[in-house]
Write a structure and sequence with these properties.
Number of strands: 7
Shape: globular
Distance between the termini: 67 Å
Bound molecules: S-adenosylmethionine
Strand content: 5-15%
Order of helices and strands: HHHHHHHEHEHEEHHEHEEH
Length: 311
């Protein structure tokens, strides 16, 4: 009984905090579902939150969370299945193997059991929500002028190819890399009609096989956290190689850099490593997206003019 009420209090706390901070409804629900040890905890916490909510603004946002929960009743099971498969070793289960090969096997399994939720938990297994989140990120890249028909790109950790397909019409050529053999197959199938997309399997240790100064954009959506889990050497090798692959003026965009580390410390760490590999940090932000709470980090390979101005 005590366990049940403390779980409900935790769920209530994340829901009330999220609603008060105008966090997107799908993210509030996802955070609540993660805390809830049974689906009933969500029902109880939402009912309590409704009783306590006086204010019109948060009240409306709370109703949006409730509506989403009503329309996605399978989301609790889905999220807990994904978390049970993809043990990040940050919870009570203690230390687990975090090597790149273990993550390859984990994502192979998720590709079978939870193809959408395994890519993005915040879409609650809903393909329409996932498509909207993908489109929002692609629009964001476009707004920053990072997608051009004469530009080539590499996506690290391309998963099932949702971004490759959306990016292909806006770029000259895009290469996707992933450690999961199953996801590489899925991404190839998804992009089979696109001549300017290639998908390669990688061992996940670095970007070694790709040519120097061959791309204008290196994109990594929610994959750097897995590089961090693997090892600091793997993070560093990817930053070093991204700097090598980029043409002068090219961009490295990392959406989500590390899990469980506060955003300011993430940025300090990235600044230090990026500087060591000759990349300029252009922008760091939170809250760029309405359907995802990922952090955004934009780095750039300096041009000759940048180097001239700096000296
Ligand atoms: C959370 S999923 C995100 C997938 C995709 N970026 C998206 O947003 O749909 C993380 C992805 O990173 C891949 N991954 C994990 N470690 C990797 C590594 N060391 N190198 C390349 N891909 C990796 C996984 O196989 C998985 O496809």
């Amino acid at each position: 009984m005590a366990e049940r009420s403390s779980a409900t209090s935790r769920v209530l706390a994340v829901i009330e905090e999220g609603v008060a901070a105008s966090v997107p409804a799908n993210i509030v629900l996802m955070r609540g579902l993660i805390e809830a040890t049974t689906p009933a905890h969500i029902d109880t916490a939402l009912a309590q939150a409704r009783r306590r909510s006086q204010d019109a603004g948060p009240g409306q946002r709370l109703r949006a969370v409730e509506a989403l929960w009503r329309s996605h009743p399978q989301a609790w099971h889905l999220i807990h299945d994904v978390l049970a498969t993809a043990d990040h070793g940050t919870g009570q289960t203690g230390i687990v193997d975090q090597s790149t090969s273990r993550w390859a096997a984990t994502f192979d399994r998720l590709a079978e059991t939870a193809p959408d939720a395994g890519m993005a938990l915040y879409a609650l297994g809903d393909p329409d929500l996932l498509a909207a989140a993908t489109a929002e990120i692609v629009d964001w890249l476009d707004r920053y002028g990072l997608l051009r028909p004469d530009h080539d790109a590499v996506e690290i950790g391309c998963g099932n190819g949702r971004f490759l397909k959306a990016l292909a019409p806006k770029l000259r050529f895009v290469t996707g890399l992933d450690v999961s053999a199953k996801l590489v197959m899925d991404a190839r199938a998804r992009c089979s009609s696109l001549e300017n997309v290639r998908v390669n399997r990688t061992a996940g240790e670095d970007l070694g096989a790709l040519a120097t100064a061959s791309v204008d954009l290196v994109l990594a959506v929610d994959v750097f956290p897995y590089l961090h889990l693997a090892s600091q050497g793997v993070v560093d090798a990817h930053l070093r190689d991204a700097a090598r692959l980029l043409r002068p003026g090219g961009s490295l965009v990392i959406l989500n850099y590390a899990y469980g580390v506060d955003p300011t410390s993430q940025q300090v760490d990235l600044d230090r490593r990026a500087t060591a590999h000759g990349l300029l940090v252009k922008r760091f932000a939170m809250g760029d997206f309405t359907l995802w709470d990922g952090t955004s980090h934009h780095l750039r390979k300096p041009t000759l003019a940048d180097t001239f101005i700096a000296n």
